[in-house]
Amino acid sequence: MPKNVIQLNDPFVHYGNVKMTQNFTPHHLSVYYPDSVDHLIKHNPYKVSIKVFLLHSKTKELNNIIAKLSATFSPIFLIRVDDPEKMIKGHEEISITSPHDFLKKLTGRKDEIGKVLLASFPKKQIEFVVDLPLTENHHFYNPENSFKASKSNFMTLNQILGNIWANDKPRGSATSAVQDSKVNLAKPPEDSSRFKILVDQLEKMNDLEIMVLKDRKVQFPNGRYEWLSPLILIVPFNFPSLGKVYGPGMNRKELKQLQKALNHEQALNYNSYVKTEETTVEELRYRAKFQNLKIQYLDSVGYLHASFTYSPVIRFPMLGNSIKTELSFFKPETINETKWLKSKELIDKFGQKLSSLIIPKGLEDKVLGLPRQVVAITDLPVEWLIYKQHNLCFTHDVTRIPETPYGGIMASYAVSTNVQFEIKEDVLSRTLVLLGSSDHDNEDEDFKKYFESIEQQSKTLGFKTFRCQSIQDVKDQISLHRPDFLIFDCHGGFNPETLSSHLDINGQSLTADAIARDKLVAPLVFLSACHTNPNYGYLNKLADAFFEVGCISITATYFPISILSGSNIYFRLLKNLSNAAKAPVHKNWLEFVSHVVRTSYYKDVVYATMRNVESSETNEKDKGKILRTLHKLNIRIGVNMLRADRRIEIMKEFEEELKNICPKDLIDTKTISEFVFYTHMGRGDLVRFESWNKEFERINGLKFDRVLNKI
Q1: Do the beta carbons of residue 561 and residue 541 sit within 8 Å?
Q2: Which of 285-294, 492-501, 658-667 has the highest mean pLDDT?
Q3: What is the pTM of this model?
């Protein structure tokens, strides 16, 4: 069904208008229970809209609920969610059983719908006409097939083209070559025919977006190329600890079946292969049920996340045991100094294995070749995937929405649909940095040294700091300041018994449970601490709690981070934010925070090299010349790193120029690439800078009121 009634006149024109204004147009989906209907009526979200209620026919006092809804909202329509093809008895005139039934009833209430449109656009009279000027060509352009992973893109393309709204004919010919959930042993696991269906959809969606942006002559303030809608990647992974969570409530037989199901995975052709002598028909049915429920949920929620920006979705094969060996190197309880020093090598090994398991050879550029942001729904550190010999978080801005706990994906979606948060020019005045360390003498002295620096910086930039001696201090400060941007600078830890992570505030553990219970949150959160998002088996993590209480974007860490590098990153983040909030350099928060973290590696190398030069026996004249040249190189590389299409090239130039500027023995070789230790989560791509929005509207001649909701 359409997201907006205006799509019924010409969905492609509506799509062009959305791309021209760069507005977000998500599906607005809310869940209410019978005892909260009065709350819905009182608060009345989305006041000017046509509402469709999905109701269960056996809900208590159903007729009373429908009467209340009809008296409050007009027009409304009903779907019987327990049997969608049947009408709700006694309410046939507003019950709908299919998209075509919905359109027929809409057309029959044209005058009433017209009033809704006029209320939506009071400054301009808009005639409501259901012409449906759609052609049969749309059916051929967007065929439906039985490959489940392609369903999200089929529905998004339909939102763009409207082909299934045109008439009562079939929605497109099914692709007979694709039969989901059937194993064809004649084809090797490397067969990429199914994946190519997704690539074909992706390319069509890219072409349509590029077409309308060029046709409308849309200009972007920063003049760069990352203007395509973000790519949604879904990498299903059978989390190794789910058995521990669900196991206590199961009998031994059920638990055994679940454990086997958690080892279940798919080959590159999206088929599963098992040795028949090692399993029973009953076990295969259990695995198939487990897999289908999980995949159906991920595809559906992926489609909802795609609805913000008409994004394409690539759902990769489900992974299990084949990646767990490489991932197990990053268990927090096994990380030692040797692993930390070899971290980049281990991370790249994991990334290469992940790439080989989910992307057929030769199709990498088809998926990742365009400079665009990535929203990944997965528990795996997809930022480490290798593309063009670099980690994906180097070539692209990547944000993740953890797959487990499963409700977190919906929580992130719900927050972003209900809160359109914008970064104001004075965001630093609403930024709070909480400093947590031991108050004992001779403990955390390195921490405290940097605390003094950040407190000094706050006087210049205008953000607030507080040295927390207890969790109560954390609560009090967040309650007092209600920050837009919240930073924790402290130790972080993990508990393998409870599969949880926590922040250390003067010896007290700030856990996910406490964050959720006390609603310790801000729209944007940055955790400068170790192990805040540990890999492999940890389910009760800090980020999950922040999302639960309304956070939109959080940056956390996979690995231990050094105090020096960690402090430098968020020092630079705050300093750069003072400029980024005022000048239209970055479109959204994800672009900004990714750039700051990504560039930390080469900056750390430059600063370490400068220290080597300063302490060397080089004469003062040559020292000055080298330091000045390094400073200029530092600035030039930073500017060029803003361009996704130049990053790989510019890093090669950086390495070569460094050799020409400095004697070989003074060039730093010990700095660890700590930028890959960080993970950005949530929908930071939906958080725009006010300065960017204003400049975008100015250069494109747009004049409209932007009404934003605040947390």
Answers
A1: no
A2: 658-667
A3: 0.91
Collapsed DSSP state (helix, strand, coil) of residue 372: coil
Six token digits for residue 563: 């105090």
The residue among 630, 553, 565 whose CA lies nearest residue 592 is: 553
How far apart (Å, rounded) are the C-alpha atoms in residues 82 and 611?
69
CA 694 to chain centre: 24
Q: Which residues of 637-670 are buried (b: 16+ CB within 10 A; e: fewer)?
A: bbeebbbbeebeebbeebeeebeebbeeebbbee
Percent share of the chain, pLDDT over 70: 90
242 CB-contact burial (10 Å; exposed 0-12 / middle 13-18 / buried 19+): middle
From the number of C-beta atoms within 10 Å of its C-beta (0-12, 13-18, 19+), residue 188 rates as exposed
At how many degrees (to 10) do helices 252-262 and 281-306 cross?
60
Q: What's the Cα-to-Cα distance from 10 to each of 132, 161, 307, rounded to whole Å?
A: 7, 8, 18
Q: Which two tokens stand for residue 561?
A: 């981070």
Lowest mean pLDDT among 326-335, 459-468, 481-490: 326-335
Those residues with Cβ within 8 angstroms of residue 605's Cβ, 6 or more apart along the chain or in another chain: 658, 667, 668, 671
Q: Which residues contact 672 (CB under 8 A, 6 or more apart)?
A: 340, 341, 343, 344, 562, 565
Three-state helix/strand/coil letters over 616-654: CCCCHHHHHHHHHHHHHHHHHHHHHCCCHHHHHHHHHHH
Where are the extended beta strands (E) located within 442-523?
Answer: 464-468, 485-489, 491-495, 500-505, 508-511
Query: Is residue 90 packed enough to be buried (19+ CB in 10 Å), middle (13-18) or exposed (0-12)?
Result: exposed
Distances (CA, A) of 158 to 7, 27, 247, 315, 382: 11, 14, 42, 18, 29
pLDDT of residue 458: 95
Residue 703 confidence (pLDDT): 67
Report yes or no: 178 and 194 within 8 Å, Cβ to Cβ.
yes
Q: Residue 583 gets which letter from DSSP?
A: S
pLDDT at 587: 93
- Round to whole Å and give the CA distance between 448 and 463: 18
Cα-flanking dihedrals φ and ψ of residue 697, to 5°?
-65, -40
- CA angle (144 as vertex; 139, 145 as ends), nearest 5: 145
Residue with tokens 């969610």: 81
H helices of 76-150, where? 99-108, 110-120, 137-141
Q: Is the dihedral of CA 191, 196, 197, 198 positive or negative?
A: positive
Measure the CA–CA gap between 429 and 432, rounded to whole angstroms. Answer: 8
Cα distance between residue 470 and residue 258, in whole Å: 41
- What pLDDT digit, counting tens, does each position of 396-451 carry? 999 999 998 888 899 899 889 887 899 999 999 999 999 998 777 778 888 888 89
pLDDT of residue 378: 95
Integer angstrom CA distances of residue 580 from 420, 553, 591, 593, 597 = 19, 17, 11, 11, 15
Convert 558-582 into a string of H (helix), E (strand) and C (coil): CCCCCHHHHHHHHHHHHHHHHHHCC
Contact indicator for 466, 432 with CB cutoff of 8 Å? yes
- Between CA 701 and CA 703 the distance in angstroms is 7
Distance between CA atoms of residues 347 and 80, nearest Å:
49
Both tokens of 415, joined, read: 């927050």
Nearest to 581, CA basis, from 690, 457, 681, 709: 690
Instruction: For residue 204, give both structure tokens.
Output: 């069509």
